[in-house]
Sequence to fold (246 residues):
Amino acid sequence: MRSGRHDRSRPAKGRQIIAIGGVPSDPDNALLDRYVLAQARRTNPAVCFIATASGDAASNIERFYARFATLRCRPTHLPLFGRTPDLNALLPAQDVIYVWGGNTKSMLAVWREWELPRLLRKAWTSGTVLAGISAGAICWFEACITDSWAGRYAGLPALGFLPGTCCAHYDGGTERRDALHRLVASREVPKAVAVDIGAAAHFVGRKLARVVSAQASGGAYEVRCRGTRAIETALPVTRLPRARRA
Fold:
């Protein structure tokens, strides 16, 4: 796997989606958060946190504010299980929309009831960075690999903003990897990008622009069907430099 350098001071232009494979083990590791914010169109971006997949769990929302309060941004969150604000006013005002993990199938069902896919697509095409972890990473693709059902991994149709399939937590155990290979080999899902914990796949438009990682190891992989087998290929990865502590 190759490493590279990326100038985070120069955000990419156009529609952006940053799919993060999972939270790094170090709870103080803000490298990926800083990377996401660096891609926004403003230097002090408005960031909206969406925790639908966890049922708007208060612990996740509190953790978001605690993390992002230390960064240069203006954080807020979107509740869909409490009193929900005017979505047509809230979402277009955001520079970054950051989606948390949990049950992907349930999240998508709630989003569709609130017509969120249409609003998220509109925000994306207008320059808002869409980012997320786990369910918040895999939801943007044609299909995803999810454990929304107890005891098994399965393919699930997703939003279709990006082509192909996404699998998060790829280095989190062999069961998920085996499920992805089986589903790709049987052509039940299209070719996939699989993202390790602590890594992110950054798409500009509908194409993968780069893979970045906050870890010394790990990255992302393309998994495609060749004949009756799934073929896995490591993608080039950029290791994010650690910021100096004040």
